[in-house]
Design goal:
This is Cell division protein FtsA. The chain has 356 residues and is α+β, with helices and mostly antiparallel strands. It has helices spanning 56-70, 99-113, 147-159, 170-185, 187-191, 226-233, 241-249, 258-280, 301-310, 341-349, and strands at residues 12-16, 20-29, 32-42, 48-49, 52-53, 76-81, 86-94, 121-130, 137-146, 163-169, 196-201, 205-212, 215-223, 290-294, 315-317. The strands form 5 sheets. Strands 13-12-11-14-15 form a 5-stranded mixed beta sheet, sandwiched between helices. Strands 1-2-3 form a 3-stranded antiparallel beta sheet. A 3-stranded antiparallel beta sheet has the order 7-9-8. A hairpin with a 3-residue loop joins strand 1 and strand 2. The longest helix has 23 residues, at 258-280. The relative contact order is 0.17.
Length: 356
Amino acid sequence: MGLFGLGKKPGLGIDIGTDAIKAVEIVSQGDTYEITRVAETQLMQNLITDDEVTDIGKLSKSLKQTKRGLGTRAIDVVSSVSGSQAISKQLAMSLDLDDEAIAEKIEMEAEALIPFPLAEVRYDFESLGEHPTMPGQQRVIVTATRTVSVDTRVQALEEAGFKVRIMDVDNQAILRACDHVMPHLYPDLYDNKLPLLVLDISSAAVQTIVIGHGEVMFTRYQSGGLNQLFKALDNDGEIDHGELFAKLRAEEDNDFSPLVIQDFLGNLWAKVSRGIQIYRSNAIKKDFAGVILINSGAMLPMIAENIREQAEYPVICLNPFEHFPLPSKYQHLQSHGPRFVEALGLALRSFTPWHT
């Protein structure tokens, strides 16, 4: 199996994060889609460490729980590896080249494109269409990741009863979800010629992504997400992190040290600011149309407020469920939409062509 997969169908995306598995199933409805099923399964600590699976059997057990929670008969799935484990390069190639010719050209240039031993990697490509500034050329994105990063996730998914059709990359899935949802929810920001700054704040990391013109223009991973705050607030390790998260969501933080919270927020902005500086050092367009917060961090009011105070641009917390109404039995997950952005992007991936 190549990096992206084997066949066609269904619209089932599974995001295997460090703290939880998020799954979204969609069906095509004319020129749009409808969410039919959603599921979330919490993972035990350290099951995913540094984006690597430490116990395939335990991960498979959690994926089986996700499958039961979905209650779907669909088994074809789209999942992903972390962009921190992948490398992507965009190339300009003649519009006359079809997929077979593009594949041959990449094979010829693979050693120069991929900085890993070819025997240790999986790679694939996707045409992004005609190049906006180079007539007669098309943009082709080539993505490669180490085989072990793909194989451990594929093994866990298949042991859980799924059939892996595509292994995507997380930042590409996030881009796809934003490109689908933003024109409906925030058309003014999306139509702006300036790029968008996406801040993916998870339990384990902060990922800074710059997107624009249908492509990921920049990405930077930095370890140290919400878990740093949770550990600082619970020195004794006696409080469940889920309980801490719920209290912070409800802004019930009177029992917590304001110095600890301010220290975390300061460190968070320092990470974001550093990512922006690195992007700007090589960017032609140094400003942004806006800032998009996603994942668990987007669900904490104090983070959104802090980013709004620091940023020079409009800041939104992207909830794709505001565009895709959830079936009534999933209404309790409505406010959790920011955590499902990647899973939605993975589900959308199954409705675009890929290579065999």
